[in-house]
Amino acid sequence: MSKFGELIDLNVPVLLDFYADWNEQSTSMHPVLRDVAAALGDKGKVIKIDVDKNKELSQALRVKGLPTLMIYKKGEMVWRQSGEQDANTLLGIINEYI
């Protein structure tokens, strides 16, 4: 979990995508997140977290539905939502925290 703290304790917004390869909504978000990451450049980060490989973290953050998206800034969660989002919506939300 200490690695997780290092990931989210940044001055730029960090978008976390909790996903599973067996979940169709999760996998359909992959190209959207690639676009978001490309548009953000160094103004933010996008990190994908496989819930099957990170069960302890997923449980600690109470991830129930997939995909679950969270934005952290300076170690604090500032936004969270479950379900698919489009790139423009995500960029609009992330830009509020840049």
Verbal overview:
The protein has a single domain, classed as Glutaredoxin (3-Layer(aba) Sandwich), CATH 3.40.30. Strands 2-1-3-4 form a four-stranded mixed beta sheet, with helices on one face. It is of the alpha+beta class. It has five helices and four strands, in the order H-E-H-H-E-H-E-E-H. The protein is globular.
Secondary-structure-based class equals alpha+beta
Strand order of the largest sheet: 2-1-3-4
Helix % is 25-40%
Overall structural domain count: 1
The main sheet comes to: 4 strands, mixed
Amino-to-carboxy terminus distance = 25 Å
Mean pLDDT: 95
What is the approximate shape?
globular
Poorly predicted residue ranges:
none
The first-level CATH class is given as: Alpha Beta
InterPro entries: Thioredoxin, Thioredoxin-like_sf, Thioredoxin_domain
Domain Thioredoxin: 1-98
GO molecular function: protein-disulfide reductase activity
Protein name: Thioredoxin 1
